[in-house]
Design a protein that fits this description.
This protein has 259 residues and is of the alpha/beta class. Helices cover 45% and strands 16% of the residues. The chain has 10 helices and 10 strands.
Length: 259
């Protein structure tokens, strides 16, 4: 088991910590595979929280082993994305349970876009999001060129991508790029409380909500109404719906089981 990623199972949810703090949690091959394994083994959990160790969240691909003057230059970055980053992004977006990202420091390049792949992003006030690709002659990847215009609009997306300027957490929240920012000392308590709350919630309904929200970005309105009806039909047959109604009528908190 690699120590580049720390996995902690807490009650019915799991906390995944990127753990190369000396490299601002930049991803090397070992860390790629460890993070993938952690995400692939989330079955049976009802919420996932991803964060970083030290003073940064993640600065994307580790460039320490890149040598433009070496014999193996140029690298096949298409292969790097197809084999490593894209599977991570797909795993995060396809998990049925809520995935929370607690951005504790700088999130740059593909590291920023891994965070944006999560369902809810909380960030410390001192955190920054940097689409650093243009600074080294690259284009946004790991889903960044899709997430940015869909979340903040073309004008802001273009500015972030072309300039590579940092965006602080408070402004990122104001723009709708992330869910919210909070004081640094409140980040992890807020994120863990949210994960614990989701772990005690209606898991199947959360999965249906995630599916609908992501599909809305490409569905027509009529198609989406049909999709809503199908998801609501499934939710209406769940034990959690029956429990939710009973709890509402009895004026008590619901005891959801995730079924």
């Amino acid at each position: 088991m690699s120590d580049t990623v720390i996995v902690e199972k807490i009650d019915q949810w799991v906390k995944i910590t990127l753990n190369r703090p000396d490299r601002l949690n930049a991803l090397n091959l070992e860390m790629h595979m460890a993070l993938r394994a952690a995400l692939e083994n989330c079955d049976g959990t009802r919420a996932v929280l991803i964060t970083g160790a030290g003073r940064g969240f993640c600065t994307g691909q580790d460039l320490g082993d890149r040598n433009p003057d070496g014999e193996d230059w140029p690298p096949d970055l298409g292969h790097t994305l197809t084999a490593y980053f894209n599977p991570l992004v797909r795993l995060i977006t396809e998990l049925p349970m809520p995935v929370i990202c607690a951005v504790n420091g700088v999130a740059a390049g593909a590291g920023a876009n891994l965070a944006l792949a999560c369902d809810m992003v909380l960030a410390a006030h001192t955190a920054r999001f940097i689409q650093a690709f243009s600074k080294i002659g690259l284009v946004p990847d790991a889903g960044g060129s899709w997430a940015l215009p869909n979340r903040v609009g073309l004008a802001r997306a273009m500015g972030l991508a072309l300039t590579g300027d940092p965006l602080d957490a408070t402004e990122a929240a104001q723009w709708g790029l992330i869910w919210k920012s909070c004081p640094d000392e409140e980040l992890m308590p807020t994120a863990t409380a949210l994960a614990a709350n989701f772990a005690n919630g209606p898991t199947a309904a959360y999965a249906g909500t995630k599916s609908l929200m992501r599909a809305a970005l490409s569905n027509s309105f009529d198609t989406h109404l049909d999709a809503e009806a199908q998801e609501q039909q499934k939710a209406g047959r769940s034990n959690d719906y029956a429990e939710g109604v009973r709890a509402f009528l009895a004026k008590r908190p619901a005891n959801f089981t995730g079924n």
